Amino acid sequence: MKYVFFISLFLFCLPGFLMAQSNKGINFQAIARNNNGLAMPNKLLNVRVSIKTDSNSNKNEYQEMMPVTTNALGLFSLVVGQMETNKTITLGPFENINWSKSDKYLQIEVDTLGDFSFINMGSQKINYVPFSFYADNVGAQNINGIIGLSQGGTGVDNLKDLKVLLAIDKINNTPDSLKPTSSLITSAINTKLNKTDTASLSTRINLKLNSADTLSLSNRIKTITKTDTSFLSARIDSKLNKIDTASLSSRINKKINIGEIAATDITAALGYTPIRDDYGNFYDTAAQPALVSTATALKFSYTGLANNINVNNNTSGVPTKITVVHAGVYNVKYAIQILKNEVGADIASVWIRRNGSAYLNTNVNFNISGSGIKNLLTGSYYVDLGANDYVELYYSIKNSSSIPTGTLLQANPSRPATPSVYLTIDRIN
To answer: Does 403 score more than 90 pLDDT?
Structure first.
């Protein structure tokens, strides 16, 4: 089998830095060669790029995956960190990388067969980071020296010189008569109104109406007769009395108050017992290899639609535990796509675990065909679960080349991607 690799990988790697307002990235170029050292023109590859803090560590700060096609010279290019067509960000976002915290290493992996079996091409330290990346994480405590006025600083490094610079060196221990006053305050004081300035206003106050001045108006009010309110009086006389609302009062008395309807009343009215709407679908797109004859839990990194059901991490920090909120009987369905690149056949076993123990009679043995044939394994079971119980989907294989593998977006016709594993779970009503 021919594997693609990179001759002098980082001699051909020409990293540059692309920066925009919110779209930063690292330009990357490389030449794909075969085992004989010859360039591979017009070759479709899947490239996975990881940024990590240690060349030997498995912990990544960022990871992306993208299909590329080499040109006539075997050269391909991509921009690490920038969203491009068909690119999948598997760990990120790129903007969250703290470039000032530690050294960064760039790791390149290549899949030549389209089955997501990536070959590690090696890691290389990123020796130069653009100021725009580093500045995102610079704190004031990291600044040494004096920053000049033209650069937004004060130009001094002590309080005494700062007070002189700002012309406030006489604020402390200064008599009130000598304390400086701003021009705005001085102008406001100079323009204030004095007592003599309010003479006109005082005259107007003296001319206001007193109680005796309103005598005429008061007399006019007293002469208003009852006949002037006859229309209003007629409306009051025609209002509804208590006996007029007897029918309405009776209906109100028969109303149902909150808490008066019991669960048994609802069940009797419907003719069946209503059950909460609990459902969920979970999937993963990554290849999930396993050791030979070893029970391996399948992970579900993504959630489609879910209500009262979620996925939790196991003790190893891997999302494998499909956990329900309410007790009940649940229908669990799964579909696994397994690819065996080598010739020959294999046998894969798939079963369900509940709360860490194998669930009775759920194991199924599937025959696996080789030579790159995609094998689909499916199953459906009813599982009795209590509140906060969980199920896990396990599998084992007899040949390490049999791997649950997803499929990328496809064209002619346009089709969505195929997950490596897919699981749905619904509470039975």
So the answer is: yes
Let me know: does 15 contact 64? Beta carbons within 8 Å. no
228 three-class SS: helix
The number of distinct structural domains making up the chain is 2
**What residue numbers bound the domain in which 391 lies?**
279-427
Closest CA to 5 of 78, 77, 75, 109: 109
Residue 132 has pLDDT above 80, yes or no: no
Whole-structure pTM value? 0.41
Q: Alpha carbon 57 to chain centroid distance?
A: 26
> In terms of DSSP bridges, do strands 25-31 and 44-52 run parallel, antiparallel, or are they unpaired?
unpaired
Q: Which amino acid does the sequence have at 333?
A: K
- The answer to whether 352 and 393 have CB atoms below 8 angstroms apart is yes
Instruction: Establish if 62 belongs to a structural domain.
Output: yes
Considering all CA atoms of the chain, what is the largest pairwise distance in Å, rounded to the nearest integer? 119
- How do residues 297-315 score in pLDDT, each as one tens digit? 999 999 999 999 999 999 9
> CATH number of the domain that 91 lies in?
2.60.40
Give the H/E segment covering residue 231.
helix 230-237
Q: What is the mean pLDDT of the chain?
A: 84
Q: Residue 274: phi, psi to the nearest 5?
A: -70, 145
Mark which of 135, 167, 190 sits at the end of a domain: 135
pLDDT-derived band of residue 179, with 50, 70 and 90 as boundaries? Answer: low
The pLDDT score that the predictor gives to residue 15 is: 43
- What is the token pair recorded at 247? 């029918």
What is the DSSP annotation of 276-293?
A: ---EEEEEE-S-----BT
Query: Does residue 375 form part of some domain?
Result: yes
* 170 or 87, higher pLDDT: 87
Strand partners, 130: none
Sorting pLDDT into bands at 50, 70 and 90, what band is 100? confident
Q: Give the tens place of pLDDT for each residue, 273-289.
A: 777 799 999 999 999 99
| Rounded Cα–Cα distance for residues 370 and 405 (Å) | 14
Between the alpha carbon of residue 53 and those of residues 59, 290, 352, the distances in Å are: 8, 27, 38
Distances in Å between the alpha carbon of 59 and those of 56, 104, 191, 265?
9, 12, 71, 57
Instruction: Specify whether the CB–CB gap between 350 and 364 falls below 8 A.
Output: yes
- Interatomic CA distance for residues 358 and 370, integer angstroms: 29
> Alpha carbon 224 to chain centroid distance?
73
